[in-house]
Amino acid sequence: MPTISIFYGILIKMLFDDHNSPHFHAEYGEYERVVAISRIKIIKGDAPKRVKSMILEWTALHQEELLQDWELCANMQTSFSVEPLE
Questions:
Q1: Are the C-beta atoms of 75 and 19 separated by less than 8 Å?
Q2: What is the phi/psi pair of residue 6, to 5°?
Q3: 72-82, pLDDT tens digit by residue?
Q4: How many beta carbons lie within 10 A of that of residue 70, not counting itself?
């Protein structure tokens, strides 16, 4: 599962050849959230409220790049890094 971005201790990852609608996994310590990209929303998982806010803000800022990375991963190609939240 390639890590495409890291910010404030949050690791953003995508699975190769994953099924379902475009999404990514956000890991923060023992927490993991699965986040839909096309229509930005939390699909499952839990994390502190502040972490959730940062993940959703970052997703909105990089939605197009994330969709491009989703296509690459879905086709078993190398994804590119996405700028972290500053």
A1: no
A2: -140, 130
A3: 988 888 889 99
A4: 20
Do 42 and 54 form a contact (C-beta atoms < 8 A)?
no
Residue 31's φ and ψ, nearest 5 degrees, are -95, 145
Residue 9 makes CB contacts below 8 A (sequence gap 6+) with 28, 29
Counting DSSP H helices and E strands in the chain, the numbers are: 2, 5
For residue 17, pLDDT beyond 80? no
Which residue pairs from 22-30 have beta carbons closer than 8 angstroms and sit at least 24 positions apart in sequence?
Answer: 22/66, 22/67, 22/70, 23/70, 24/66, 24/69, 24/70, 25/1, 26/51, 26/55
Helical segments of the chain, H only: 49-61, 63-74
